[in-house]
Amino acid sequence: MSARSSRRLLSALVLVALATGCGEQQQRPSSASASTEDAGPLHVHGLGVNPKDDALFIATHTGLFRVGPDEQKAERVGQSRQDTMGFTVAGPDRFLGSGHPDPSQDLPPNLGLIRSQDGGQSWKPRSLSGEVDFHVLRSAGGRVYGADATSGRLMVSSDGGLSWAEREPPGPMLDLTIDPRDAARVVVSTDRALLISDDQGASFKPMLRGEPGLLAWPSADSLYRVDGAGQVSVSDDGGNGWRPRGSIGGQPAAFTAVDERTLYAALPDGTIMGSSDGGAAWRVRSRP
Predict the structure, then answer these.
(1) What would the pLDDT profile of 198-245 be if each residue is shown by its tens digit?
(2) Other C-beta atoms within 10 Å of 130: how many?
(3) pLDDT tens digits for range 253-273
(4) Is residue 166 part of a domain?
(5) What is the enclosing helix (H) or strand (E) of 178?
(6) The pTM is what?
(7) Is 74 part of a structural domain of the chain?
């Protein structure tokens, strides 16, 4: 597959996923689809690992799911079936999210930034309730970055998501990852290119090499990217040079890395793939 075809495939995939997440929320049947919704994590929007117990958490169109370290079956966490579009693990049992409420909840259609401090069992508003819908959400320390789907803005917080500064992104954002050595330094993937910022997104410059993709940066010398065809590559110099690794086996719906060896990726059908060798080989971690 050519680089141009891979870009088109990834862009189309992300646009479809975003449309699905926002468009279906008000149309979800309350009873007829209950058995389907309980089947497992479909329409995956985000992945993260809880440092408290190394469990994998799966943020979906119908709530949050958990897969324990020695388990293969994902189980629902808490009672909420909210459409968790943006999701990031901020610390042990501490998660940040965004998206849309369950139709049974008396909440604004856009949740803004929400927070859980009990491993996803419950969520409370943090800021921007009713104002934003983060489809990309990343955190490191007290720094939080979010791409607001309602306005196209890149928003940055230095106090854990209480107050925000607005940035002009370099294009429609597919993903963002934070330098593990410096939370002011980020790499952004648009639908056409990878760009880097050294000043919390105030300015960007194109990277020397690198096609668009979903990103993860778990350690200083391991910046990962998975393209629209599912091909994984890694950079050991912050994105200037890339080496091919393996394939997740399909189009990516979500992507994360725990360290330089442990990676997870979601496929469009809700299957979660895992790698323990830095992306060279992949196996099924969980099925919906």
Answers:
(1) 999 999 999 977 789 999 999 999 999 999 999 999 999 999 899 999
(2) 12
(3) 999 999 999 999 999 999 999
(4) yes
(5) strand 173-179
(6) 0.89
(7) yes
Q: Please, which residues bridge with residue 233 across strands?
A: 225, 244
Total number of residues shown for the chain: 288
For the chain, counts of helices (H) and of strands (E): 2, 24
* Residue tagged 């990277």 (tokens): 207
Please, which residues bridge with residue 230 across strands?
none
> What is the rounded CA–CA span in Å between residue 139 and residue 123?
17
CA distances from 163 to 42, 91, 113, 128, 144 (A): 32, 19, 11, 9, 10
Strand ranges for 198-242 from DSSP E: 205-206, 214-219, 222-226, 231-235
- Running DSSP on this structure, what letter comes out for residue 8? H
Q: Answer yes or no: is 33 within a domain.
A: no
Tally of domains within the chain: 1
Domain with 58 in it:
3-28+38-286
Q: Is residue 84 part of a domain?
A: yes
Hey, what amino acid is at 84?
T
Q: What CATH number did the domain enclosing 225 receive? A: 2.130.10.10
